[in-house]
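Here's what a typical entry looks like (Antitoxin ParD4):
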Amino acid sequence: MGGREGAGTGQAAALPKFGKTIYAHVMSTMNISLPEGLKDFVDQQVAERGYATSSEYVRELIRRDQDRLHLRGLLVAGAVSRPTRPVDAAYFERLRARVRKGAIARR
């Protein structure tokens, strides 16, 4: 892909896409076989949901699955962690104060 490499990130320069920032990555190729019904479904999703290609649609599905698995891992880690103090109004006020203090320190 064209573009200059970002500072040691392995990504090309950011490309704007309808208000989102995307990065051009070096792509590998993977061929998959689908039954006709699934291929028709993918083609329909590409057409109706504004994806440029079926590859873009599949990449988005994979990213969402990665996000889902990451969230699941966080939830499981939270479930097995030891209990903490109750979260109440005072907790959130202390949290807001910490955030404000950090924002002031960064100025």
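Confidence is low (pLDDT under 50) at residues 1-11.

More examples are in the samples folder.
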